[in-house]
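Standup notes
- DV: blocked on the single-chain target, sequence here:
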Amino acid sequence: MNRKPSDEPSSDRRGQPAAQDTSQAASLAGWLAPRLRLKQCEEFCRRMGVGLRSGVDLMRLLEMERKLGGGKTQEGIQGVYDQLRSGDTLSGAMAAQGTLFPPLLIQMVAAGESGGSLDRVFLYMADHYRDTRQARNNFIQQMTWPAIQLLLGLLVVTGVILLQGFLGPANPQEGMQFDASGLGLRGVSGALTFWGYILAVAAVVGLIVWGIWKNWFGCQEKLMPWVRKIPVVGTVFTTLAMARMSMTMSLLLNAGVDARRVAKESFASTGNSYYQRGSANAYKEIARGQSFAQAMRAAETIPKEFIDALEVGELSGTETDSLERLASDYQERSKSAMQALASTASYALWGLIGMFLAFMIIRMAMQYINLLNEAVRI
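- DV (later): unblocked, structure below
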């Protein structure tokens, strides 16, 4: 099923990639800019979705939101309200509020405006934020006890280091030859050194994770081909991105939006630079009048199962229904994958604790054996 793209890219504000606008706004907002929390995003989307589906006017809904919010949130909703009154689009007004609204939400709202299905978008995003919040809470619950045990282990080692400094001389030649910690550290200075190493490692790991999340140096494009092959972690990233892409395509195709804009909005909705990397090849295929399945195949970043489902839908003329079912399927799979990720991370932390304890026991045992050997020689 071939589609003829529009001759010229749309010049209205809805046709522009919302991700670009939001990234520029985020860079200007700064580190301390207000942001809606996951629960606030869920409640906001739920109220907006239910209200719009019930026929309540958008401006009336925003008036109600102004009363519910407080501080910077109330100011942001007021800004959205004022810009809508001046003729701006909802997604454009939300993007202008800096980092208050998540970029993904703004992008999906832009797709909903183009497709004329804002109520469906808001309800879909409410479910998305609910699932994300539940997965985060589940992750925290599963990681709390192992983290406490790891902390207790570190405190025990710290106590041993302090005792070595208080109970014996620091010079091994003066009689203190047994290093109970196995680290060669004693006293307050040794404890501070030990925690300095721990904090340095934690800072490096945190910086790496933050850099990947923020896509420093385009690292997502380089890492995603490898991450996708990891059974649990790769499934989370893939299913979340494909759920958003399929829902966006379903909304826009159902509204008869031109093919070029459908492709642009769909790739932007993934929120992942790896998948967006293949958009240039997809645009070329769309410009040649090829089907969406052929365009996605040319992108070389989209999973085969997504392309196959899209191709069947295009051949049967039911691509919007197929994409909607696909979005639902990916959303359910992403929920299961996030739960599995939380369990896997918990087991990994248990393994880290086990290796740490084993290392300390072996080090202490070796120190004790060396002490006995020295005593035998004497």
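- Follow-up: The radius of gyration is 27 Å.
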